[in-house]
Amino acid sequence: MKLKQLMNNFLQDFLNKEKIEFRDWNISVNNKEGYGDYSSNIALKLAKILKKSPIEIAKKIADHQNTTKNIFTISASLPGFVNFHISDIYYQEILDQIINEAENFGKKKKLNKSANVEFVSSNPTGPLTVGHGRQAILGDMVSNILTWNGYDVTREYYYNDAGKQMRVLAESCYAKYAQLIGRDVEIPENGYVGKYLDEIAKKIVDRYGKDLKDNNSVFRDFTEKEIFTNIESTLDSIGIKFDVFTKEGTFYKNGAIKNVLEILKEKDLSYEKDGAVWFKTSSLDKDEDKVLVKSTGEPTYRLPDIAYHADKVDRGFDLIVDIFGADHIDTYPDVILGLKCLDKKTDHIKVIIHQFVTIKKGGEIVKMSTRKANFITLDELNDELSSDIIRYFFIMRGANSHLDFDLDLAKDESEKNPVYYLQYANARISNLLKRYDKEISGDEEIDYTLLKEKDEIALIKLLSEFPNKMEEVSHSLEPRKIATYLEDVAGAYHKFYGNHKVINLEDLNLSFARKKLCEATKIILKNGLSILGISAPERM
RNA sequence: GCCCCGGUAGCUCAGCUGGAUAGAGCAACGGAUUUCUAAUCCGUAGGUCACAGGUUCGAAUCCUGUCCGGGGUACCA
């Protein structure tokens, strides 16, 4: 980051001297050989304004007085790029910084800012499926990213304990109970039929006996509690814990929902039609109006969601992140609109929508629905795969791409999984460091300038980009980018390792410098993996 | 109907706030193994970036249209 600032300052200095008013340039990492480490398009952009050829401008910039020659030199190349050649010394010195700051390298200081990340938020109507798993892991990593970047993060789980779904669940549970004790009761239409309900029904028989009537609250409360306990233990097994659980029922009890309706009515943003209450979204740039309260008197999900979000905004977070499945794609804009109508701040709300997961099992795609019982649970996945692999698989694809999770492949070819590639690099280093201590006793003088091989510089260059990477990810909130970066680091390390001997009794100074490079690499791998919640084993 | 996502090597996908010769893994083929852990490395081969226009000095990337695939959605959430 400091480096980029120096390069920007240099360009700005040139512009100042030439009295040119201009901002729209960028500096990007350059992996092409012979064109330096970083390049800027500034001359190409300036060409039009100055009405001169880009290469002419680039050359002029390259000739501009550079007060930081020990850090970089500048050249121009066709069609008009300005190239920065970073000196080896700059990179070599970064190693010192990485090793000194260790687990804090690239980490932001506390910002004194708070963030709320809402995810999973699955209603307790059944076990978590692999679809929830994707969201759970995405949310957890996004939370980690924010924490790393200085936010005080609250992980929140919101669920509906009051709506129609829970009523249907209770009815389904009663039907299972009744069937178990010989009463002739059918599972309601659109009811839940999963096996987990049989087990719960059995528990109810054991605990409460056979005389319960269908309207007994046990069927709702006990079932909810059972399922919720199961959900929490599932999440726990992949290393996820929440700070706050919020129930929809709260907003009925405290009047918040009623309040939303009243405000909308006052502002003439709602009306009654066909026995339902409608949200006048058509007057707010929407194609059609949406229902807030059904003709049955039950609110749709929109209404409590608006009340809930208003509550989150009122709690004063500096950043609110909502992670939803693709089924919310049409609905969250209504919630945001609702907030605006209530005069709530909304520009600090980030919504991450992720596409669904399909599971391939035995070459066939399993279509999942909680209601029909043909889903694969997160627990089942967890039984067969390690938490590390599950975590990695779920973020290998961008959130808005469909994820085909091939179960057989994940199991059978688990040794080819990229997560091992990362972990292996770490294990290799760990082993090497142990070996080093055994074979070479006592430290030599540190001389980082001995690290001038191409593979060494390339590795350090990558390591030095870690803080930039984390900064970038704090805005994009894409954990996958960390994974991709770490794969690059591991790759560069394996390459270095393959081509150069670290322990060399003939040259202890070089050995020591290389050992330090290994240590720095390990720090970066560990820091990155810890944000992903993936372990960094010492041995494999 | 409306909305979202995708179409890049044989396969799975990166790259998409426009930049130099489009990358990686797997699969294929050839090499490195008395190893500082080969779960690795080196090399070869593999491409009309779905298609057609447009904007630009410059397009896989931005805009428009078309085709193909996946998904969501209606007083269920």
Topology:
Blueprint: H1 2-18, E1 27-29, E2 38-40, H2 42-50, H3 54-63, E3 72-77, E4 81-86, H4 88-101, E5 113-118, H5 130-148, E6 151-159, H6 164-180, H7 195-208, H8 218-237, E7 244-247, H9 249-253, H10 256-266, E8 270-273, E9 276-279, E10 290-293, H11 302-314, E11 319-325, H12 332-341, E12 349-354, E13 357-361, E14 364-366, H13 378-384, H14 387-395, E15 403-406, H15 407-412, H16 418-439, H17 454-464, H18 466-476, H19 479-499, H20 508-532
The protein binds one RNA strand of 77 nucleotides through helix 2, helix 6, strand 10, helix 16 and helix 19.
Which short descriptors sum up this protein?
five-stranded parallel β-sheet, Isoleucyl-tRNA Synthetase, Domain 1, 540 residues, 50% helix, alpha/beta, Gyrase A, domain 2, four-stranded antiparallel β-sheet, RNA-binding
